Every structure is written in C-alpha cells, then in structure tokens.
Amino acid sequence: MSERLTITALGHEGDGIAEAATGRVFVPFTLPGETILADVEGERGQLAEIVAPSADRVAPACRHFGTCGGCAVQHMAPEAYHAWKRSLVVDAFAQRGIEAEVDPLVPLAPHTRRRAVFSVLKEGNEVTLGFNRRESHDILAIEECPLLVPGIEKRLPMLAGLALRLAERGKRARMTVTATDTGLDVAFEGGRKLGRSDFESLGHGAEANAIARLTIAGREIFASRLPELRGDKLVLYPAAGGFLQAAAPSEAALIDLVETAVGKSNPVADLFSGIGTFTLRLARRAPVLAVEGDDELLKALDRSMRFSTGIRTITMRKRDLFLNPMAPPELKPFKAVAFDPPRAGAKAQAEMLAKSVVPTIVGVSCNPATLARDARILIDGGYRLTRVTPVDQFLWSSHVEAVAVFQKA
Ligand SMILES: C[S@@+](CC[C@H](N)C(=O)[O-])C[C@H]1O[C@@H](n2cnc3c(N)ncnc32)[C@H](O)[C@@H]1O
Can you tell me which residues form the catalytic site (predicted)? Predict the structure, then answer.
C-alpha cells in the first residue's frame, strides 16, 4: 500500500526527501512542499501519486524524462532549480568548514550541449542509440534530447544509421559526437572489425552527412575538414573523443571567470590545460605555461597555437600532475595559476600550491566536493577564498561546475 508523505527537501541527486515513520525516504521526481503517495522500500520511494503539487512543478521538456538516466530534475521551475544547483556548491564548501559567499548560478539554456556520448547496441538488424535508462544498464533509444544542439539532435537518425554499420551484434559500443564549426566530429569505440571497402564507403557517407571527421577505435578514417571551434581570432581543435567543455555558453562563462580572476597577472600557468580552453584566452594578455597529461590534447593545443593570432608565448609541458605536481620553486615565477582537474580533483597539486607564493589561484571544477577539499588545503596553507561561482553546464542533472578564486593572504 502506498504511503502518504510530505517532501521536505531535495537531495544532492535531485530526489525529494521525506521523513517517514521508518526514517528518511528518497522519492525521485518530487519537490519540497509536495504531499505525495509513494511505494516505499527501505530508503527508496516510488512516486505513485502527487496529492498536492508544489508551485515550482513544471511540465518536463523531454518525452524521455523519467525513463532516461540523463536528467534528474526537469520537473522543477527554473528559479527553484537554480537555487538547488547553487546549494550543491554551498553545501560542498560547508562540509569542509568553509562558509563561502557563493554567487548566483550562471544558468544554461536548453539545446546548448555540443558534445554527447551515446551508447550503442546492435541486435539482429536493429540498432539502439541513446543513453542508459534510469537506474539500469539498458540503453534507451533517444528520439529527442532538448539538451543537445540542433546540429546533433536533428541528426540522431543519421547517427543511428551510422552506428548500425559500425556496431558488432550483441556488443555494446560508444559513439562520441561533437558539433564543431566545421561539422560533426564522430568517434566510435567498441565496434566490429572493418575492412577496406567499409572505410571507403563510410568516407563517402560521412561527407554527405556533415561529418567533418570520423574516428574508429582511435584511427582517423575520414577527415574532410579538421573539426574546429573558432572564436575571436582563436581556434580550438578538439581531439577525437577527447575532453571538451560540454556546452559553449558554459565554457564562455568559465573562461570569463578565469580571465577576470587572473586579470593582468604575468606570467600565468594553466594546469590540466587540455586542448587549451583557458590557455589560449589567457595568452592574449600574458605568456602561459600549459601543463597537461594527455599527448593528444597537447598536440591539439600545439596546433591551436600555430593557427591562432594575437597571443603571447605558450609553453607546453606533458606531466602527470597527480604523481608529479608542480612544486613551490617551479611555481614561484607565476603571478597566477589556474587549475581545472578531472572529477577526482587536484589534491597533490593543491598541497604544492598551498606552500607556494603564487598571488592568485583559480580552481575550476565539475565536482564541488573535490573543489571544496582542494579549497580547504589552500585555505589551510594561507590562501583567502575571495569568490565562488557555480556554472551550469549539465542542465537538469545533479552535476554543476564551479570556479573558486584564491588570493595569498
Ligand atoms: C576537466 S579537464 C579540463 C581541460 C581544460 N582545462 C579544458 O577546459 O578544456 C581535465 C584535464 O586534466 C587532464 N588530466 C587528467 N589527469 C591528469 C593528470 N594526472 N595529470 C595531468 N593532466 C591530467 C585531462 O587530460 C583533461 O585534459
């Protein structure tokens, strides 16, 4: 029998939280203030009926909401959604004992995600291209996705057709699609073994379908044009299947925040630089040292350097910053350091930065928990946290980017 519950809060994954007789219950797709009926099993509740909806409840934007594992909170009005996302950052810092003044969230509009990683499964002569179903490893075929830029969304049938040709029956594969200024950059992993005739026909099909580059199992099999992201005399070259900030407006917001914090500092170091998203912009004002662990991304940055204009010297270093972080004597010449690590954060590097004399440090992160941990290390080392800004890059999910600025106290 369903239990009547009142939702009192929203958890970090976007589930409503109720205090039931048996304890805390998490009920997906519910909102604070709502009275609901739910089928409860342990800590999990399944929404059966909304008795009294919240004023913040809105109709979801996508027909797949609820079954697709991608989005958690499409049912929430923008203002409440923005406040909740900001609270994820506030809470992460508070958990490390940091009472930070956190800026309002920089919001993101739908139809802005320019990079998507699709799962693929071929069974018989049919292919499923989509995202994982909610709480499942099964793939949900995606017919629409209001997150995606139209250049990807409207080509979903074409991409499914391509996946059908590349996939091996019964074996799960992965297709990474990036919309660039010169066409789609498609990277396929886990497909069937291809022969010479496959490569030739795939090349023809790719050109006709606005695919700039097709890479299969790390091998570039077709490149009519190099995928490029252009802006303001600068050009970025995404690496096939490699890291790229997922949405251009969020990337612009992150760059602005980093540039503002760095100001006129000279010289600058950009740690975990990737293809140079921040490096290139910072290099318009000062020489930059870019440090990154992945060869392919550094190669892309090297190309950007040669084809961008109006930039100062960029020095590139390949280095594992987890095992071999830059030490205080190496950091000494820099007036500002930006770091943008993967989700695991930059603990070892933060420990070195904490001991350094670098006047300004800017942390960018897609994981507020590790950013807050690294912030604690810097604060304990004598840095003052002067600004924290949450930036939405993964709309309607529980993920949020944040930029934190530190000054040597
Ligand atoms: C969140 S991405 C940021 C990239 C870049 N700042 C951008 O905005 O495009 C993190 C980067 O850290 C790099 N990385 C991951 N582990 C690393 C390590 N141990 N040492 C150096 N770089 C690493 C990845 O290759 C990736 O480029």
Answer: 366
